[in-house]
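Appendix B, record 7
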Amino acid sequence: MTNNNQKTRQTGISLSEEVFFLSDGSMDNYSQRKSRRTTNDERRTFKVGYRWISGFFIICLSFYLSGCAHISSDLGPENVAPFFHIQTDPEKQSRRLDGAGPFYSQSESPEEREWTFRPFFSFRENLKEQTEELEYLYPLGRYQKTPRGTVHRFIPFYSSFKPAQEDEEGDKKENWDLFLFFGGRDKAGEPYGGFFPFGGQFRDRFARDEIEFVLWPLYTRVREGETETFHVLWPIFSLTSGGMRRGFRVWPFYGEEKQEGQGAFQKTFFLWPIGLYQQRYLDTDNPKTYFYLFPLYLSEQSPNEQKTIFLWPFFNFYTEKRFHYFQVDFPWPIIQYARGENAEAFKLWPLFSYRKVDQREKISLFWPVFIQEKEEDEERDEVLNRFLYIIKFHQVYFKKEDRWERVTKFWPFFHYAEDGRGMEHFYFPDLMPADWDGLERNYGMLFRIYEYYQDGKGKEVSKFLWGLYYHQKQKDLDRIEVGFLFTYLKEKQTFQFSFLKGLLGYRRDGPNRQLKILYMPISWEEKEETGKPPGSPPEE
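Structure tokens (predicted):
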């Protein structure tokens, strides 16, 4: 039975303010600019026209340097896509840099720094929560540092855990695995290690106090509290003794094990996996008995539950007295009927199926053509509709706030999300088959040809071909950029357009005017007209 407090599904709506930059939130570094050996006159004449060229070399150099430098707060918006694209938000104190199209990105804010070199690695640092996370060759490599400790893995060759400090119980446990080598420290800080399968020892791992082996599977010793189990040619021969437990095994012919006291049980098997007889939870008011003649007959019986299976897994009968629940599969998975205190189900698969447990409901028609899942509680209603597992409509209604969050995904074509507060995010195409943050962060941006974002406060941003075309629109601001080819800007007091970053351009900023021809600026100032005839005396 499902608990009412079961954790609800994530909506998949990711509309944080950082999405203003239309990225996954990654960051890299800037190197220091090298001075050019030019005269002061040459600088004054050409520094604006060639600023994007020097910026391009900065980005190229940064690929080879460490990713720890910051994006200078003195930098303003600059678009030289596909070489690099700088975006800033003074209100949020956020800055973002994209380089080499979708392959390189870097961003930072007062609370977070991120950088990514797709598809090889991504790094995120949360300054507020004091956490760091590095993913490389996702999903194989991952490094994570938190106040609890450090976790590092590279599947299937290496993994490790090292605590930042002892816990309240003085636990000093740490471990590492390097392919067939392993080691670490137990809770008391004592070291252990080995080389599998030749010999070694584990302590406080795999839910056991101690595991020793020599030429595994030739010899293994396992200790759990006062109980020890010796294995020879695992899993064939074993002998268990000590504490309240004893047993032996000659697999697959016969084996038995018995424990008294807390967690008491009795287990027996013969001709595994055909015959099995077990009694569990003997120290409770609800002991349970298992009897299997696999696959012909399986039985599980307790004062509260009875389960019987014929010709596993096809014909199942299950009752639970506590919840007045009854279920029959005849045969599984085609026909199912169930009814209980807080649950009911009917299935004629694949034509139709319906199941309700507590406040959760699931319906399918012509599976997998249409599947619907619903969940309701005091705070929210949630509905998830899927068509052929490639089209998804996900809605969450927050009752107290009277608002909807929605996600529409049509794989592999597009993804659209809105949060009910005016924030919207759309991108095309959406090639990632699963809604995993790591997939989007390390690979998703490589395939996003078009992207649109609205922050609910009047800001709208559109990007095409990873910023080659960039359009930002909000109150008193309209900016259009086509890489380094064309720039258009309109603000309250400012109007500007330019071709090739100043080869030809014009700017009006209040009374100030500037015309650029071949990157050479010609500036003048226009006085405001007073509307008085010539020769009129000035006002006192």
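Remarks on this record: The CA atoms of residues 33 and 57 lie 9 Å apart. Residues 304-358 form one domain.
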